[in-house]
Amino acid sequence: MATADATFRYKERFGEGKARTYFRRVGDRAVSSVGLGTYLGDPTDAVDDAYYETVRAAVESGCNVVDTAVNYRHQRSERVVGRALEDADVDRESVFLSTKGGFVAFEEDRPENPGQYVQREYVDAGLVDADDLAHGSHSIAPGFVDAQLDWSLANLGVDTIDLYYVHNPETQLDVRSAEAVYDQLEATFERLEERVAAGDIRHYGVATWDAFRVPRDHDHFLDLSELISRARSAAKAVGNTATHLRAIQLPFNVYMADAFTVDSQEGPEGAQSVLWYAHEAGLNVFTSASLAQGEVLDGVPEDVDEKLAGDTPAQRGLNFARSAPGVTCSLAGTTSPEHVRENVAAGDHEPLGADAFDAVFE
Asked: Can you tell me which residues the record assigns to a coiled coil (predicted)?
């Protein structure tokens, strides 16, 4: 797993030329504020080869945050990340590695009949109850997430995962009440607290798409304060002195700024954005879709673009995401070593200060 000493040595090795706030903190670890996502791409050997080179290019050029999930590219992304990190010219202990569980994962390719596959390999095998599945493909039941965590450890070839996310729990709101979802999350948090105690993960979190940035009356809304409360109860139930809920992940970019503009969470002094709420609650925030899944590459809106530093639209887009309050790291997916080096070079430039960032929305 990532260690304080190794990540700070990494910062010293790659920090020269980087702006002051490029490296940030997750607990006592130093992490780059530009990270690599591994969602994109077809499940092919050619894309595996491209990812292998891209992961190595990322960690060998100043990006020490790599994010993946067991279902990404039908387990291929985790497996190629593991191979690349083993061969990279950096220590495993210097890389902050995160992955996720919640969606069923196929075996390297989409089966001809996914429904039959899930029934045979998951339900009949006793890995998940059919009643726990949403849309036949998603579960946050503790036993299911526990099994997926084991797969991720094996796929990645590591002993410990630095941050393990429950993946898109709001999917469950399509088939059960919010209270039932919170109850199931608490049970899963208990299991994850046990896996922390066992040394299999360092921290856990919740990765979302809609849940935290939509209004409170939205069908996919989840209350972050309730999740924190459930995590505290889970830690207490297993005898841990404090919760190991460390982070959230959500989309944020210049075209999708709801996490800052929508006051979805109820703070001590009233409604506030999830970014502010998470920051005040001491949670790290990792932004997904930081380049709007490529839309930013076609250009940043002119009135925003002129305020941002960076040599390319990608760099200016990442610097917008990195400027938001409470953001620890902005993830961008690519299968190109050249593009990942370009993204890392965003860190040569200072992000917006707080006043300048607020002014974008005035």
From this structure: 175-202
